[in-house]
Amino acid sequence: MAGLHPKDPKDVFKGEILFETLIKEGSGMWGSNLPKEDPARAEKMTALKELWPKMCKNFEKYITEDKKFIAGDTMTTHDYTVGIMLINVFKNPTKEDQDFWAELWKEAPERMTKYVDDIQGEIRGYLGSDKRQEKRF
């Protein structure tokens, strides 16, 4: 991925912190991919609901208003992990529990919603193509 990784160590740090906060810390909870009958699924969704405000605060802390993406005005590897995960969870029309995700998304800071809109705008050609996987496995 030549040219996609940020060069400034501060940008690398921001991307890694956001990855840790949103993806690693939330892993297993985003995956309300467990069967609906699994009792652990409800517990994970409750835990995520409690953790979401902290995730939002960390996002706001590490992403600036003056840049479109994590490391500037061009997408980097961090945007392809963090941004795409946010799109998949909150904007994917095939994601289960749409009401749950919509309720969480209402609490998302304005900067996060703008960031996701910017990512969607950047990859709109892919999102609108037949290359996009339409069905969940």
Notes on the structure:
Helices cover 58% and strands 0% of the residues. It has helices at residues 9-24, 39-62, 77-90, 98-106, 110-122, 124-127. Helix 1 (9-24) packs antiparallel against helix 2 (39-62), helix 1 (9-24) runs parallel beside helix 3 and helix 3 (77-90) packs across helix 5. The radius of gyration is 15 Å and the shape is globular.
Query: Based on DSSP secondary structure assignment, what is the total number of beta strands?
Result: 0
Q: How large, in whole angstroms, is the Cα Rg? A: 15 Å
Structural class: mainly alpha
Distance from first to last alpha carbon = 27 Å
Query: Considering DSSP H and I runs of 4 or more, what fraction of the residues is helical?
Result: 55-70%
User: What's the helix-strand series?
Assistant: HHHHHH
Mean pLDDT: 83
- Largest sheet data: none
Task: State the shape.
Answer: globular
β-strand amount? under 5%
**Count of DSSP-assigned helices:** 6
Low-confidence stretches: none
Quickly describe the structure.
With 137 residues, the chain is mainly alpha-helical.
Please describe the structure with a list of short key phrases separated by commas or semicolons:
mainly alpha; 137 residues
Which helices and strands occur, and which strands form pairs?
Layout: H1 9-24, H2 39-62, H3 77-90, H4 98-106, H5 110-122, H6 124-127
Helix pairs in contact: 1-2, 1-3, 3-5
